[in-house]
Specification:
806 residues; Rossmann fold; alpha/beta; 18 helices; Immunoglobulin-like; 40 strands; single chain; 6 domains; six-stranded mixed sheet; eight-stranded mixed sheet
């Protein structure tokens, strides 16, 4: 554990509160010696002076000693010597057991709470309370209602929270109240298997879409799986996935498990899903040449091909400009596009080529002003100043395994990533390192890498301990960078499980406004990716997986050698955007245009030498994409093959957005679970009517009602079909690993339910109160100074009396 620098001086258990005052000892000692040896008597000759000094030498030495003791005692008294005495009192041990009484907990031994109460109340008072009932599991709310502060809570639950406050927020909040939350590592005693289906709920008619069936199996039960689409049974691959093309309208998918023995809950053996196939979006493709994109887009979208921008483009969901010179886009055209995108909320895609961007007079043009990118090389200066602060999570949660298949701890992976990053920086780059748990510790100040000494060894020596507060580490990093000159980069390596996440996000936003960029790297299978992604997004950076660390040099300003054979390979820089999420591309280019993102542009894909290829951004209510290479006719042919063409469709679909937003009538409702309310929103010129639903007008042409389903299956609401599934209580069964993780992070313990002795000893030990008493030793030194002063006076009087009698 790293410690903060302190100004206190200690010898064993004794310390000085104001130790700098002791510096005055040296000049005072010199003054005392000087004054003591000065002779103020006038002599007739040198011989007489020698005799006088010889006769009084002993007196002077005694005076020096006595006065030195006086001044030293006074200085020590001013420095305030003290001793801290630690005393421990037994306290008042007691325990509150919060037992889960929900249906999902029935697969565990439900008598364990009562049994533990009987065994533990022999040693201290035990309260047993139930915090969940039936199909409702508000575990977080139950804990919040029962914590008192400075108490011990034992949560006996599977940890799956389906209602109320977030479980993680409540457990981490408890540490602020000094309440210790504990739990048991339970094993199911009954078996069960549940089924769900993942896949899109809206698709474009006759396009291929992939779906996955998930099986949650407690006890390795055997089963027969059947999946149907509109009543037709489909075949699954080895990953339990299938692809399907849908005709226009709503479609029903359902899957079931049959021939399951010893299955405790039968209701979770069937799952329903609806898919709405929408008409093909209308796309305007503006091109002055024959394009291979024409055929590719025409097979998916309703495509109109023109050579110039028409005056009326309102009927289209998106406009694609393919390799159009800025001279061919007059100010009137720009105003039409600006109103179309910004006011109407539609999409624009600008594709490069030999007549576009830097090759097409975009620089400084009126058209360039509405784009999320501008023409330029964005070269990195050779004399650039790069400042990087590594923020490394050393909390107790990083002591857990990186994954179920890895023997490495998360903290070992974090340290390896940090050390590897050091080797990729230039020796002239400034690097600082912060470690944090619930506090922040300075491992190394902001210093040129070549002058940091053995920084790798310091990082290697970090140990995992304590709670987690990303805010503390980020705040220390921001303070370290606030006066730095040049680029300011913060790299946070963590699992993202933290207290006060909102404070960290707000700080990241403030740091971004001050010119800092925050990059986050999630470590571990249970990383809180949502928080880490948001932290990077608020901080103007991106989120990376550990295997993507090689990208970091592109963001920090690393000047790589330009290897022409590799410079045209494409790489995804930001895989958290809708376009690039779950996207895999393997393409090389033979050419590209020179563009760099504006502040409102997000660079998603680039070449290996960091030349932007795909930039996305918003303009008013609409969306704009920049593809800084051509349509595949010369430079980017590999983007049109089967593997890579998904980039084009995702780019167009993102630009299109919601294709139903301008309809005169539309019903929007999401699949739900039995008993769970869901909103039905209807776009209509008049109030809709449906038996059992009461619609209310919430905006012009928009009505809403609450639908509470009472049975599973498919329900029809106006023109829509909604799937109703079994209660969420039965979807996730077994022990929630997040509960164990959160309890440990908050400083609690995970007990074996049979280890009564450990539970008893832990509660008793945690109930002890440690008091620290300060004993001040100032007065003894003052008394010493007074006594020595009196001795000095007495000695001088005796000497004076003796000299008078001689």
């Amino acid at each position: 554990m790293l410690q903060e620098i302190t100004t206190k001086f200690c010898i064993r258990e004794y310390c000085l509160a104001n130790s700098p005052i002791l510096i005055a000892i040296i000049p005072l000692a010199l003054i005392v010696a000087f004054v003591s040896f000065i002779t103020f008597v006038k002599f007739k000759d040198k011989e007489e002076k020698k005799i006088f000094i010889k006769n009084h030498l002993v007196d002077r030495i005694v005076f020096i000693i006595l006065r030195t003791i006086i001044f030293l005692s006074i200085l020590i008294a001013i420095a305030t010597p003290y001793k801290l005495i630690e005393t421990t009192t037994e306290g008042n041990p007691k325990l509150t057991i919060l037992a889960d009484n929900s249906s999902s907990f029935e697969i565990f031994d439900t008598s364990i709470a009562t049994r533990l109460k009987e065994q533990l109340e022999k040693y201290f008072p035990v309260n047993l309370r139930y915090i969940a009932h039936g199909e409702l599991s508000p575990i977080g709310d139950g804990i919040l209602q029962n914590i008192e502060g400075k108490d011990n809570i034992l949560v006996i639950s599977d940890g799956y929270n389906n209602q109320g406050s977030d479980l993680g927020d409540i457990i981490l909040f408890s540490s602020i109240l000094n309440s210790s939350i504990h739990t048991l590592n339970l094993k199911p005693i009954k078996k069960d298997v549940a089924i769900t289906i993942d896949g899109p709920s809206q698709v474009i008619v006759q396009t291929e879409n992939k779906f996955r069936v998930n099986i949650h199996n407690i006890g390795n039960l055997k089963y027969t799986l059947e999946v149907f689409v509109d009543g037709k049974q489909v075949s699954l691959d080895k990953n339990k996935e299938f692809s399907w093309r849908f005709s226009l309208g709503y479609h029903k998918i359902w899957a079931r498990l049959r021939n399951v023995d010893e299955d405790y809950f039968e209701e979770n053996n069937v799952y329903y899903k609806t898919v709405e196939a929408l008409p093909r979006p209308k796309i305007l493709f503006v091109t002055e040449k024959e394009s291979p994109l024409k055929e590719a887009l025409g097979s998916i979208y309703s495509l109109d091909v023109v050579s110039s921008i028409p005056e009326d483009i309102k009927k289209y969901h998106a406009v694609i400009l393919n390799d159009i010179n800025a001279n061919k886009i007059n100010n009137k055209d720009v105003d039409i596009i600006s109103d179309y995108v910004g006011e109407k909320g539609k999409g624009l895609i600008v594709i490069g080529g030999e007549n576009s961007f830097n090759k097409g007079n975009y620089k400084g043009s009126y058209f360039e002003s509405i784009l999320p990118a501008q023409v330029g090389l964005g070269k990195k200066s050779k004399g650039r100043k790069v400042n990087v602060v590594l923020v490394i999570d050393i909390s107790e949660s990083t002591g857990f395994g990186f994954s179920e298949t890895s023997y490495n701890k998360k903290i070992d992976v974090e340290k390896a990533l940090a050390i590897n990053l050091l080797t990729s920086l230039n020796l002239e780059d400034n690097i600082g390192v912060i470690a944090f748990n619930h506090n922040a510790y300075l491992v190394s100040p902001l210093t040129k890498l070549g002058q940091t000494g053995n920084l790798s060894r310091k990082i290697s020596s970090l140990k995992d301990t304590g709670g987690t507060l990303v805010f503390a580490g980020l705040r220390r990093a921001v303070n370290l960078l606030k006066n730095a000159q040049g680029s300011k980069n913060i790299i946070i390596i963590s699992d993202g499980i933290t207290q006060m996440p909102k404070d960290a996000l707000n700080l990241a936003k403030e740091a971004s406004q001050k010119g800092m960029r925050i990059y986050t790297i999630g470590v571990g299978e249970n990383t809180n990716k949502k928080f880490m992604q948001d932290l990077a997004l608020f901080g103007g950076g991106i989120y990376l997986e550990p295997n993507e660390m090689q990208k970091i040099n592109l963001f920090l300003g690393e000047e790589e050698e330009k290897i022409e054979a590799e410079a045209m390979n494409l790489m995804i820089l930001d895989n958290n955007h809708w376009i690039t999420k779950n996207l895999d591309i393997d393409a090389r280019l033979s050419g590209y245009n020179f563009v760099v993102p504006k502040p409102n542009g997000r660079k998603l894909i680039a070449t290996n030498d960091d030349r932007a290829i795909l930039i996305a951004g918003r303009y008013g209510l609409g969306r704009i994409c920049i593809l800084a290479t051509d349509d595949g006719s010369k430079w980017a042919g590999q983007l049109l093959n089967k593997k890579n063409s998904k980039l084009i469709t995702k780019m167009v679909n993102w630009a299109v957005g919601d294709i139903n937003k301008n309809l005169d009538f539309d019903v929007r409702v999401k699949d739900t679970n039995i008993g769970k309310p869901t909103q039905v929103n209807v776009i209509s010129n008049k109030k809709p009517e449906q038996k059992g639903l009461e619609f209310h007008k919430i905006d012009t042409g928009l009505y809403s009602a609450t639908f509470i389903p009472k049975e599973v299956g498919f329900a029809k609401i106006l023109d829509a079909i909604v799937a109703v599934n079994y209660n969420e209580e039965y979807e996730k069964l077994g022990m929630n690993p997040e509960l164990i993780e959160l309890v440990t992070v908050s400083g609690g313990y995970v007990f074996d339910p049979e280890d009564i002795e450990k539970i008893k000893d832990t509660i008793i030990n945690l109930s002890r109160r440690v008091k620290i008493k300060t004993i001040n030793y100032k007065w003894p030194f003052i008394i010493i100074a007074i006594i020595v002063f009196l001795i000095d006076i007495l000695y001088r009087r005796i000497k004076e009396n003796l000299s008078m009698h001689l």
